[in-house]
Specification:
By secondary structure, the protein is an alpha/beta fold. The protein is built from 6 helices and 12 strands.
């Protein structure tokens, strides 16, 4: 299995799946990651109707409670990093303040900048604002919603981050939707759609039996047995 960036068709196959289904598929193709690699506490998603996004992580850390000190990251250099290949990208920003989300980095301006440089959305433990004015189609998953940007600034970028239990490295492949996010190891990324299809077919057997007229314990048991034998 190659670690080369996915083709557009391969990305489309992953976009066709919701994030819980991707997590289910990873239990088959990467069983050692069954309990790691995904967000484990809730994120605010003001745009739940947007389709899933799949992209390569651009990681950063920020603070907002106090003014920036000498030596913090240059904002333009950060934007250049986000725009680097491979794409499309998803920005993953950890808020490292003692009160995460005190000030919002994400609003009308930054969502439009990031969309313009190839970013599909943000996953952050910090806050978001300007919800009605954020870039069209730009997905937002955040720790909270707030009104002010306070002293928000990027501390550094390109290193490891943790967002609500999900450890992410720069350039990791990430899948996200209204449910949260998960890192897909590149070594198994191309195997996920087939595994997901197998799971969906097995579930359809059980769901069909549950929804059929006259459904009961015997028909459910028969469906469970049939699904267990299905390959």
């Amino acid at each position: 299995m190659t670690d080369q960036p996915l083709s557009e068709a391969e990305l489309d196959a992953l976009r066709a799946l919701d994030t819980p289904t991707v997590c289910n598929a990873l239990e088959i193709v990467a069983p050692e990651r069954r309990a790691i690699g995904f967000t484990t506490t809730p994120l605010v998603c003001p745009r739940p109707s947007l389709p899933p996004i799949v992209g390569y992580a651009r990681t950063a850390r920020l603070r907002s409670m106090r003014p920036a000190q000498a030596g913090v990251a240059d904002r333009v250099a950060y934007y250049e990093y986000v725009a680097e290949a491979p794409g499309p990208t998803i920005t993953i920003i950890e808020d490292i303040d003692t009160q995460p989300g005190y000030g919002a980095f994400w609003g009308e301006v930054n969502t439009n900048i990031h969309k313009a440089i190839g970013c599909l959305g943000v996953i952050t433990s910090g806050s978001i604002r300007d919800l009605d004015d954020c870039a069209e189609g730009f997905q937002l998953l955040a720790g909270n919603v707030g009104p002010s940007h306070a002293h928000v600034h990027i501390v550094d970028f390109g290193g490891p981050v943790n967002i609500h239990g999900m450890d992410v490295e720069s350039n990791d492949l990430v899948h996200a939707d209204q449910h949260g996010a998960v890192v897909i190891p590149m070594s198994v990324a191309r195997d996920v759609p087939a595994a997901a299809a197998q799971i969906i077919e097995r579930e359809a057997i059980v769901l069909g039996a549950c929804k059929a007229p006259g459904a009961g314990i015997e028909s459910v048991k028969a469906a469970l047995a049939k699904a267990a034998e299905y390959h």
